[in-house]
Amino acid sequence: MTDTFAPVPSRLAPFLAQWDYITEMLFERLAGLDDAELLWEPGADAWTVRLVAGRPTPDVESWPPSGDAAPPRTLAWTLGHLGAGSFTRADWLVGSHAMQDGDLIWPMTAADSIEFARAGLQAWRGGLAQMTDVDLDTVGRSAYPGGLDPELPLIEIVWWVSKELLFHAGEAWFVRDLYAHRRPD
Q: How many other C-beta atoms can be found within 10 angstroms of the C-beta atom of residue 10?
């Protein structure tokens, strides 16, 4: 038996098309990424993923939006943030509604980080493909407790998560450019 889903609501289709395009471009841009570049810190006090008590741990998992500058991020942090955030939101959208920050182990190798981000982004995208117009208008449909999800209609959360992908994909591209053109020590 195969799962069948209702057609994607017309107002969701542009988000999904953009999502597909940006993820395709992101993973094409990550081709050739190695472990040294993944963990390269593009500035002082960069956020990254570090071993803490033998477990890979992000310096920060998320931060509230503000006008203040955040420290630069490594590709390990960016890919981990995209993967973990998408996995967690997908769980609260169509899964067990139990996943918490810290339940996932953020990878510290290039190959594992790329796969982690890809799988997380696919999980969120797959959950969205199941949504109806009623779901998109339902306040709290994305019940993730770590944000405004319980207070906003799902379509607003779709917008926010899409913004996260655009922001962090651009960040990853820029860090790759910086790494390729860094000054010798």
A: 8
The number of folded domains in the chain is 1
Q: In the block, which residue shows the tokens 């990550």?
A: 30
d(CA 64, CA 77): 16
Q: How far is CA 47 from CA 4, 59, 66, 142, 171, in A?
A: 41, 6, 17, 28, 13
Whether residue 22 is contained in a domain is answered as: yes
CATH of the domain at 78: 1.20.120.450
CA dist list (Å): 115 to 60, 140, 183: 21, 29, 30
pLDDT at 165 over 90: yes
d(CA 4, CA 7): 9
Domain contains 137: yes
Whether 51 is in a domain gets the answer no
Question: Residue 94 carries which DSSP code?
Answer: H
Residue type, 50: R
HSE-up of residue 146 (Cα within 13 Å, Cβ side): 20
pTM higher than 0.85 for the full model? yes
Q: Please indicate, yes or no, if residue 138 is contained in any of the structural domains.
A: yes
Cα–Cα distances in Å, from 127 out to 5, 75, 119, 142, 172?
A: 11, 25, 12, 10, 24
CA atoms in the 13 A half-sphere facing the CB of 147: 25
pLDDT band at 26 (very low <50, low <70, confident <90, very high): very high
